[in-house]
Amino acid sequence: MPDQHMRLLTRAWGRLGRISRQARERVRGLPLRASERKMGRPVPPGRLIHLVANTEDVAWFLGTGELAARSIRDVLNRNGLAIEDFGAILDFGCGVGRVIRQWADLNGPELHGTDYNPVLIDWCRTQLPFARFHANRLDRPLDLESGRFDFIYCLSVFTHLSEHLQQFWMGELARVLAPGGYLLITTHGDHYLPMLSPEEQSCYRAGEPVVRKAGRQGSNDCAAFHPETYVRQTLARDFEVAEMVPEGALGNPSQDVYLLRKPLLS
Ligand SMILES: C[S@@+](CC[C@H](N)C(=O)[O-])C[C@H]1O[C@@H](n2cnc3c(N)ncnc32)[C@H](O)[C@@H]1O
Fold first, then answer.
1. Is the CB–ligand 1 distance for residue 227 below 6 Å?
2. Is residue 255 in contact with ligand 1, taking CB distance under 6 Å?
């Protein structure tokens, strides 16, 4: 068979595999969708889940969302904090609400989510009424006043930004965080080192962040990798590091988690 036919056949076979996997995931998700709807927390359409997670798998979406919420609670508890005690919480880069939906029954804190993708925010706004949602711009300040929040978390967001935007958003999140407030971020750390090219590895080992496809920042096509020294000495230099757990972001597989505290006087 000529090469060209072989290539076409391989491509068609791959496409067929993807379609049948998607169909299986959709059928498997039906009972989960029904039970979440009954509890007043509808599950987003598969194409929106795919936008943030590269899969339409509802079981994955719900299961990892639950794990992420538990690991946020755990890291807070280890530091003498309880999520219920905060006054206002922001989920920065909330996507389609995978984690904020886990706080639907939380008593006390005011809940906010923000994301630069207006399609995701529209869905959250209409379907998750227990929180307030805001659409922000990729590289512009938030339309929220300084010191508004005492806890902000961003799961797998700094993992998709250029170095310049990472620094911009660290500053902006520090602005909307109250003095003494906490910021939790997740990063791709040492776990990913073997997957980097030799040149990327030497950059990473020298304490520099590695960013692939920076031109696609904001989307999952852009991937950033952070050595711990860079986070401590550069990215989070205006914060105190309360705790760093390698691969501790359980609902965001293999990502490191940093709990940072904004100093009272800054
Ligand atoms: C990998 S997804 C994670 C979504 C969510 N945090 C979760 O864990 O399910 C990354 C999210 O960050 C959002 N994002 C990327 N850049 C952003 C920016 N500059 N401002 C707000 N959101 C951003 C994307 O739209 C996307 O929803």
1. no
2. no
What's the average model confidence in pLDDT over 31-48? 91
Does any ligand 1 atom lie closer than 6 A to the CB of residue 157?
yes
Of 244, 205, 87, 40, nearest to 197 by C-alpha is 205
| 140 within some domain | yes
What is the C-alpha to C-alpha distance for residues 192 and 53, in angstroms, rounded to an integer? 18
From the CA of 53, give the closest atom in ligand 1: 1
Residues 22, 201: Cα–Cα separation, whole Å: 35
pLDDT > 80? residue 97: yes
Residue 52 near ligand 1, beta carbon < 6 Å? yes
**Ligand 1: distance of its center to the CA of 252 in Å?**
12
CA 129 from chain centre, in angstroms, equals: 21
Where residue 84 sits, what CATH number does that domain have?
Answer: 3.40.50.150
Which is the closest atom of ligand 1 to the Cα of 65? 9
Within a domain: 266 = no
21 and 79 inside one domain: no
Instruction: With respect to residue 92, please indicate whether it lies within any of the assigned structural domains.
Output: yes
Phi, psi of 113 (to 5 degrees): -130, 145
Task: Work out the average pLDDT over 233-241.
Answer: 97
Q: How many domains does the chain have?
A: 2
CA 3 – ligand 1 centroid, Å: 41
Residue 203 lies in a domain: yes
162: containing domain: 46-261
- How far apart CA 72 and CA 264 sit, in angstroms, is 22
* Cβ 23 under 6 angstroms from ligand 1: no
Is the pTM value of this prediction over 0.70? yes
160 lines ligand 1 (CB under 6 A): yes
